[in-house]
Amino acid sequence: MARVVVDVMLKPEILDPQGQAVQRALPRLGFAGIADVRQGKRFELELEGPVDDAALARIREAAETFLANTVIEDFTVRVEEEGK
Amino acid sequence: MTTRVGVVTFPGSLDDRDAQRAVRLAGAEPVALWHRDKDLHQVDAVVLPGGFSYGDYLRCGAISRFSPVMDTIIEQAKLGMPVLGICNGFQVLCESHLLPGALTRNDSLHFVCRDQKLRIENAETAWTRDYSAGQEIVVPLKNGEGRFVADGHVLDQLEAEGRIVARYLDVNPNGSYRDIAGITNAAGNVVGLMPHPEHAVEPLTGPSTEGLGFFTSVLKQLVNA
């Protein structure tokens, strides 16, 4: 089965208080040297059919209208290679 | 004829009963609307209540926005039907693109629950004409994702067109840009509000009765129409 991954991240100009909280906790746990953390969402979509241009176009449409709120978020769509 | 105001129940709505009660106290007939029913049952206006529809999964309001009842509400709102979204209802209106911007996680990361002072900035919308511009009211506020954000251009446009309906006073509880507590669309029939006027309609349970004006306003609007 083919897998398509949609990553959704807050736009750079939108404050990410969750990412900030994670970033502030890291040094306390001994993980030094991490300057910034942004937290996002990853969707793994398993397709019934082949990953062709038409299928990817529909997934982009789903990402644009539903998986991401493009007022505050950016998204990327990529196909996960077989056998990985 | 009694004015009929619909109150939608989504899976996870919490404040639908309080909203119905506020509608009744204002002198209108509350009509329960179900998220899966496209039919608005001849209501004259609609309230989208607070709560955690669909458990806030994906994003607050994102799944409710695609419910069958919302198809009809979006269509009717564009034709001028008054719609008030409170808290989660405001999030649904932003996700529906009936209102600009978005509601994001409070800057403090804490869920905030307090009696909140507001200033009514626009007393000409369908839901605020019983107030006067500049009037200060106190109503409960309770949210975890109530931080209103929009890009600078949209914020400037909202200011220039008088579409900021209410602002937080004294304390900005969630980091909303420009202290925005509520906004309206260009026509003034759709209003989104993060605080809860439906919890401030009776002295026994509310910090004031100053929330009732939202519900009496729409009644006046509909009777005069």
Q: What does this 3D model show about the protein?
A:
The complex is a heterodimer of chains A (84) and B (225). Chain A has 84 residues and is of the alpha+beta class. Chain A has one domain: Phosphoribosylformylglycinamidine synthase subunit PurS (Mth169, Chain: A, 2-Layer Sandwich). Helix content of chain A is 32%, strand content 30%. Chain A has helices at residues 17-28, 53-67, and strands at residues 2-10, 40-47, 73-80. Chain A has a 3-stranded antiparallel sheet with strand order 2-1-3, with helices on one face. The longest helix of chain A has 15 residues, at 53-67. Chain A is elongated. The two termini of chain A are 12 Å apart. The mean pLDDT of chain A is 93. Chain B has one domain: Class I glutamine amidotransferase (GATase) domain (Rossmann fold, 3-Layer(aba) Sandwich). The mean pLDDT of chain B is 97. The longest helix of chain B is centred in the last third of the chain and has 13 residues, at 212-224. In chain B, the strands form 2 sheets. Chain B has a 9-stranded mixed sheet, with helices on both faces. Chain B has a two-stranded antiparallel sheet with strand order 5-8. Chain B is built from 5 helices and 11 strands, in the order E-H-E-E-H-E-H-E-E-E-E-H-E-E-E-H. Chain B is of the alpha/beta class. Chains A and B meet through helix 1 of A and loops of B.
What structural category do the secondary elements of chain A indicate?
alpha+beta
Shape summary of chain B: globular
Q: Please state roughly what percent of the residues of chain B sit in beta strands, choosing from under 5%, 5-15%, 15-25%, 25-35%, 35-45% or over 45%.
A: 25-35%
| Oligomerization state | heterodimer
Spatial sequence of strands, sheet with the most strands of chain B: 2-1-3-4-11-10-9-6-7
Radius of gyration of chain A: 16 Å
Helix-strand sequence of chain A: EHEHE
Contiguous uncertain segments of 5+ residues of chain A: none
* Mean pLDDT rating of chain B: 97
**Ends of chain B: how far apart?**
13 Å
Q: Level of helix content of chain B?
A: 10-25%
Most extensive interface between two protein chains, with residue counts: A-B, 12 and 20 residues
What percent strand of chain A? Answer: 25-35%
Overall morphology of chain A? elongated
Write down the domain tally of chain B: 1
Can you summarize the main beta sheet of chain A? 3 strands, antiparallel
The total of beta strands of chain A comes to 3
Order of helices and strands of chain B: EHEEHEHEEEEHEEEH
Q: What is the CATH topology assignment of chain B? A: Rossmann fold
Number of contiguous helices of chain B: 5
Beta-strand segment tally of chain B: 11
